Amino acid sequence: MSPADEPAxxxxxxxxxxxxxxxxxxxxxxxxxxxxxxxxxxxxxxxxARDALYRAAESDRARxxxxxxxxDYAHDDTNQRVWNVLSRDPVFEDLAFHRIAVDYVKxxxxxxxxxxxxxxxxxxxxxxxxxxxxxxxxxxxxxxxEPQGLNVAWCLxxxxxxxxxxxxxxxxxxxxxxxxPDDAQTATAPMEAPAGSAVVFESRVWHKTGHNHTAAExxxxxxxxxxxxxxxxxxxxxxxxxxxxRQFASEEMLVLLGYRTVGLGLVNGASPA
Amino acid sequence: xxADSLAAAKAQLREEGWCVVPGVLDAAGARQALDRLWAxxxxxxxxxxxxxxxxLDPNASNVRVFYLLExxxxxxxxxxxxxxxALVGSLLGxxxxxxxxxxxxxRPGSRSMxxxxxxxxxxxxxxxEPWALNIVWCLTDVSFExxxxxxxxxxxxxxxxxxxxxxxxxxxxPFEAKAGAIVAMDGRMWHTSGANITADQxxxxxxxxxxxxxxxxxxxxxxxLSAQTQASLDPRMRGWLGLDVTANxxxxxxxxxxxxxxxxxxxPA
Lengths: 273, 269
What we know:
Number of strands of chain B: 10
Distance between the termini of chain B: 60 Å
Strand content of chain A: 15-25%
Structural class of chain B: alpha+beta
Structural class of chain A: alpha+beta
Oligomer: heterodimer
Number of helices of chain A: 7
Radius of gyration of chain A: 18 Å
Distance between the termini of chain A: 43 Å
Radius of gyration of chain B: 20 Å
Order of helices and strands of chain B: HEHEHHHEEHEEEEEEHHHH
Low-confidence stretches of chain B: 251-269
Shape of chain A: globular
Largest sheet of chain B: 6 strands, antiparallel
Helix content of chain A: 10-25%
Strand order of the largest sheet of chain B: 1-8-5-10-3-2
Number of strands of chain A: 9
Largest sheet of chain A: 6 strands, antiparallel
Mean pLDDT of chain B: 90
Shape of chain B: globular
């Protein structure tokens, strides 16, 4: 890519300009740790995904079913997580198994790979930040030289610096280690992207939820998390998946959900489906 | 066994990558387990699950049984035997999973499978720490002649494939033990099954395979175990089999809340 394509770095940090080109996106991931794919969800599809997510979030809140995450800010009652959105509405199947997402998974992680989890994070006004982390911190160090997972963040609202866009440390994946408390002050840049974009970042990138300092804006992101097939998934799909998803699943979906498998996750020494 | 001998076994496992604990089952107990294993092998064949795996073994003289935990409550006891779990916990820590529990009966004429370490087959290098171990139950006396598992002393310290020496096959030594013993082996240890060169002796081993809890089990226990068997399991056993909703979210290094973790707040962006 030419330097002319690059926006002014945020806070001295480089954020690559959005691209629909896979090869260029992969170079962005190798260099910066992430790439932004614009206009993946548009029109009705974006509206349906956004409506479905806010409806699920409202339902969870009304029924006191919200679950916090260990890396969330302690007394933050504004930000909201919605777990396992895959089982909440079929529109999220379109995200988890989206051609663009799976192409990045295959290119970065290889194949087969697993869908570890797909959950949402909605920031609200005054919402606090999350602990700076890398997604593969469950893997003990020293880490091998390749990323063990990939996160695809679906922006269902515009992600802006003001409304709590996920913040990351550009290039931090190349350190090949998790951040320590001493790294908490490291400069971060917001993953700013319009609604409908997918932000693809590899599992060693240091990042956190941003602080939402707007008066009245919420911003919703759905995070599809994929890993190499050797890791235990975050969601136990065999317990929680809506049965019809498996029933109508493509071969590729069965692999990502762990039903079509080789070597691990077997039943009687063979693939369960 | 005494507390001293268990401590010595744990120390040897940590340092040398293996240990043998004799007499975990007495002679009658080992004989009974062997009888139940053959019954399980028959039951497995009746269910249509073959006991010969061409991908693993050169010929049908190796009898593999995959369904132990479902087929007989005796095996559900052995996989959580206190001595076995004490060794597992000492090497892997408190957060581990039961990844698999299988049998391999080497009958006369069975031959060696490929040299490997369990970790090298699955997880990327560097192999700095044990992420897995085998607890091997000897249901018969095990000797070099009847196909004892062969291991390479010190190979659990090899951190990558490039450290495997060209003469690795000549460094192999047998794990010899009496019926009723268990052998614990670090997941980084390079090993292979032995060849059974006897005329008439079976060598029967059970392999309890345990891993750190962030790794995907070899068996999908949710899909594998019947509803009846699952209902018979206590909460600890359900946790070790990963049957419940707590999946790979429980072993994050530092889960303190932000303001506890950091003395001062990061300046607002």
